[in-house]
């Protein structure tokens, strides 16, 4: 625990509030270690059961996590606004190339100004409360686009949410309760892992190879009692996996054994993915296929279209109606314009090809060094390293900021994630050389666990 912050309190509520205050103020930053239960109980002159209850409350709220021999720590991205000395991401050193974000290249995004001007010229009328909701024209075009990708939309419903993560939150809340289990890809999307923790749910890892979650991993997770499974169909973050036709058939066979499971599919890359979609939609009674527009068209649009079975979509749309209400119809009209604009469509194709070129070039350069570099699709390359901390630090010293794999992993081996969208052709070989040097560093010897378990 940070020496400058002392946890206080005599009841479980007071102790948990003290820890939260430390996180909020930045005195307990991401990854900060908390004292073992018995150690803190002795320091506060209370029972170990009181501290254990406080830690349980904090875990259920997603603020802390227990990581085996690493003890209890503040989550890397706790669901609470922070200030002071704490920051979720360290600042990029001057002159360094930031390859840690996972974000698309903004230079390849379509210009929204001309589309907004066109919308204004069409004398767009603001929507009132009575008529608000998913724009019918957008829903129908989404239905056509989904059908073209093999999504079974004839008997499905479609709604609109404020992005993929918003859709996942609403879907999980509509079907599960705190304490329930969710099968997730391992390694998997850090935001989804954080969301699951914040909802008080338990993530159950499914190993991922280049073709998506393994059938054995899915069956094991569902057999353990997982009530939902989240699968990224293409451009999986962070590994770039994409579900193949053969893997889709295998996963469908497993899902058929668990018809009551909620299946959530995330197709965040959509048109940017250079491979055919092999969806699992409809493999269970409760399902949702989520397609965000953020990666191809712009993160600031904050919109995703969601197809699913009638009951699931009704729950999502109904909950939104009594909460946020609806996604701005102004944004929905902009997306509609983008989907119908041939210039934009061709621009997305050029962006897709550019990402493919950068990703393949980096993978080839890394593999030439004998490194295990994964990235079949998507905006990232996942590189196995013996020691994440040393690799990240060495690369920062060499002028490259990458993401540690710990943000994305549950039980999978150490690695780093490199985002390819900021890379120019001349960056590839020097970066590969630096990664090879960083990966060659021997792991730091593990510290004794005695102090953590005392």
Automatic annotation (TrEMBL):
Molecular function terms, GO-annotated: DNA binding; DNA-binding transcription factor activity; pyridoxal phosphate binding
Keyword field contains Transcription regulation: yes
Keyword terms, alphabetized: DNA-binding, Pyridoxal phosphate, Transcription, Transcription regulation
Signal sequence interval, chain numbering: none
Residue ranges of domain HTH gntR-type in the record: 9-77
InterPro entries hit by this protein: Aminotransferase_I/II_large, HTH_trans_reg/aminotransferase, PyrdxlP-dep_Trfase, PyrdxlP-dep_Trfase_major, Tscrpt_reg_HTH_GntR, WH-like_DNA-bd_sf, WH_DNA-bd_sf
Coiled coil location: none
Pfam families, sorted: Aminotran_1_2, GntR
Superkingdom, taxonomy of origin: Bacteria
SUPFAM superfamilies: PLP-dependent transferases (SSF53383), Winged helix' DNA-binding domain (SSF46785)
CDD domains reported in the protein's UniProt record: AAT_like, WHTH_GntR
PANTHER family membership: HTH-TYPE TRANSCRIPTIONAL REGULATORY PROTEIN GABR
Family (UniProt): In the C-terminal section; belongs to the class-I pyridoxal-phosphate-dependent aminotransferase family.
Name of the molecule in the record: DNA-binding transcriptional MocR family regulator
